[in-house]
Amino acid sequence: MKSFLSQHWISFIAPSLFLLLKLSSVSLRLSDTNVYFYTAYQILQGKLLYADIFFTNFPLFPYLSAIYLAISGNNIYFYYFTASIEVAITSLCIYAIVIRQWDNKQYAIICQILYLFSFIILATSDHQSGVFMASLFAVISYFFFQRKNIILVGGFVAFAVLTKAYFLPLVATYGMFFLLKERKSLLKFIFGFGVTIGVVLTPFLLFAREGIIQDIFFYSLTRGSGTSKTGVLQFFIFRDILLFSLLLINLFVWRKYLFFSLFSVFSILFILLYQDIYYLYLNIMVPFLIISFPVYQSILTKKMNLQRMVIPSLIVCLLFFNFFIYITQYRSLQNIPSFHTLVEKIENSKPEYIYGANDIAPLLAYMTQIPLLNKTIDTNANIFRKGILDADTMTESAINHKTIVIVHGVSFPHYGVEDQILDEIVVKNKISTSCDLIHSHPVYAEGITNRVNLFQCFK
């Protein structure tokens, strides 16, 4: 280990720069991170996932999140920063994989910085959503794939899926690869995958069986689209043209690089077939697309007789453009300025409960130590569309139980645009007539939202 560190100390430069950048911008945001933080906090209070807490994914991420909270003393700023730490560690794993495969430090460093400073990583790593933890497990699985330790490949792929289920394309890739190329390894892979899945899920199947089936399989696998898939793909193509190009080019190298070709096939199928695609989900592809990059760097350098610094120079220019766009347009996106003002307004009102948009209500519930209405942590609009929660019922409950309701709004008075309630999680006219707007807080959010509004539903 000491020998590796002394020979490859350069591999720590890019991750260190990335961590310094992210550390300087850690802030509280309108984010699903707040749902995951509060879920982990409830787990530390003795609550059981799926029995006491509605949760729509597999259980590994919330319990690993609880470990983050335990070691940091429930520090939410540290929790946000853990996503960047996971990205940095993943980049080191990518470096190790490329060094082993190509024995070329330049290739390894280029892959590192491609990963760390690709636009999708820069833009999404300000939030802790579990996707980077899953990516780390996925890359470790490839690390063991290189070393022919197939049982551990299955185990770490299972960890990735148990963290974020939309890493299933990687499971299909390994399974098909072993079926076509190394059939003797297929059973080892299935064994490693199956045992890991069984060990992690068995406690929940014993103690929260109905909940886990209802929350994951009934809801997650059948939920409708929350965003425009076309819009997500257009944004990915425009901002990450190199990654998109690798996704397509890999389809045609199946004779020599079957793994990468299969991965592109199953990733594209996932994008086409799964209804509820978000930009964040496309992170499943990024590490493996970047690990495939040296294939083409090598071909271009040799066949076109390029000087060895031409491609790295082009990559640096591309990444500098990504960095500039991120810094100027996206670094502050979803920020909640003067967050303490919201906390003070709620504490001064002395409500019994908090209810509202899931990207901020759990955070305010934690900061004020005021419980969430009906213990409802996740109020994603899709949950209401599926009929698992009912806006009318939750609104009536809020009005009848001394509740502060927190919703998104929009206010552009110069254009005559004013809407105090944008969310589907309440009945708008009932809140407007039965509750008083006590504070309208400016935020810099996605879409038309630019306000967080607090409604007091009691006198």
- The SSE order reads HHHHHHHHHHHHHHHHHHHEHHHEEHEE
Helix content: 55-70%
Largest sheet: 5 strands, mixed
Oligomer: single chain
Alpha plus pi helix count: 23
> Mean pLDDT, as a whole number?
92
First-residue to last-residue Cα separation: 65 Å
Shape field: globular
Low-confidence stretches: none
Specify Rg, calculated over alpha carbons. Answer: 23 Å
- Number of beta strands: 5
How would you sum up this structure, described in words?
With 459 residues, the protein is α+β, with helices and mostly antiparallel strands. It contains 23 helices and 5 strands. Strands 1, 2, 3, 4 and 5 form a 5-stranded mixed sheet that branches. The longest helix is centred in the N-terminal third of the chain and has 27 residues, at 76-102.
